[in-house]
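Let's practice the habit of predicting before peeking. Look at the sequence and jot down your guess about where helices and strands might fall. Then scroll down.
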Amino acid sequence: MTNIIALLVNRQRRFPQHVWLILFFLTLGIISGWQCAQASTPETAPAELKNLLTQVDAAASQGDVKKVIAFYSANFTHGDGLNRQTLEKALTELWKRYPQLKYSTKLESWKSEGNAIVAETVTNITGLPAANSNNLAFNATIKSRQRVTGATIVRQDILSERTQLTSGVKPPQVEIKLPQQVKVGQPYTFDAIVQEPLGDDFILGTALEESVQADKYLNPTSVNLELLTSGGLFKVGRAPSTPGNQWVSAVILRGEGMTMVTQRLQVVNK
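Done guessing? Here is the structure:
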């Protein structure tokens, strides 16, 4: 029966549900009038592009919002509904809560499309616990596509993402099983399995599914944790009837720590 009191006392909490807003800005490919032939591999990318990736990672790791936003067009659009102003606001609030984030971006492919460059990148973001983030640490991996004209990013789309938040001395190790893509109206399974033996511990948890919308980047979601009778969460969901993106999350809490994992689920037409 160890830790059951501590678990029940903390049964309802407010979590920063969408910390992944952290990254829309950093994947890059900002090129200014470079004359590029068709290309697809990082090895053939212009040196200017590679150097720019390093520069933007550095600005992001320093939490320099103004320098990061300067890489975005005034007419910037995002697949999730963000624009330049809402992106700046989201990053400002995020870096207040998490002042020690480190960014590392890898260029996966790039190509010319008329006077534009389209680049696909994978960004890893890591953050150690900080006093003003309720001792939350996180690790995120985001794959995205950027369209660049002139010297600015004009369009960005998230292709896949996974964010993990942890807190406490010993956060549970959680394995997530979720498809990356489903068809509209199709059922799917979502499992969040605690890897360590529970012993006498009780665990609390919940699963969340939300549509990806711009306004949810700035508004944390309240969650009610329920006592789990097994070593994890095992849910069956159904994709909505219209295509789009969903955030699917699992929150697992035990006496010595908490883990929250969120992944993006793409809903496509049949």
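How did you do? The helical segments are 4-9, 47-61, 65-69, 84-97.
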